[in-house]
């Protein structure tokens, strides 16, 4: 779940711009939506069992974080 705090603010900045008055609520909203989607995915992938949500956020968040790091260096 740590990836949410690292990745979502950067995605919110890309979507709404650098104004913190808009970016802070957008980050909170996007973080909540992201966690809900990861939770649904964790419950659906292997139907009778449940994958830990931290694993799902890491699988989705790591490539996004690497993309943001590479994009920032260019």
From TrEMBL:
Main localization category: membrane
Sequence similarity: Belongs to the binding-protein-dependent transport system permease family. FecCD subfamily.
Source taxonomy: unclassified sequences, metagenomes, ecological metagenomes
GO CC aspect terms: plasma membrane
UniProt name for this protein: Iron ABC transporter permease
Compartment(s) where it occurs, according to its Swiss-Prot or TrEMBL record: Cell membrane
Keywords, ordered alphabetically: Cell membrane, Membrane, Transmembrane, Transmembrane helix, Transport
Segments crossing the lipid bilayer: 22-45, 51-69
GO molecular function: transmembrane transporter activity
Membrane topology designation: Multi-pass membrane protein
Entries under SUPFAM superfamilies matching the protein: ABC transporter involved in vitamin B12 uptake, BtuC
């Amino acid at each position: 779940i740590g990836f949410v705090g690292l990745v979502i603010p950067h995605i919110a900045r890309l979507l709404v711009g650098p104004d913190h008055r808009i970016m802070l609520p957008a980050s909170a909203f996007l973080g909540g939506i992201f966690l809900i989607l990861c939770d649904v995915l964790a419950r659906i992938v292997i139907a009778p069992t449940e994958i830990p949500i931290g694993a799902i956020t890491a699988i989705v968040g790591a490539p996004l974080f690497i993309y943001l790091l590479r994009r920032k260096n260019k």
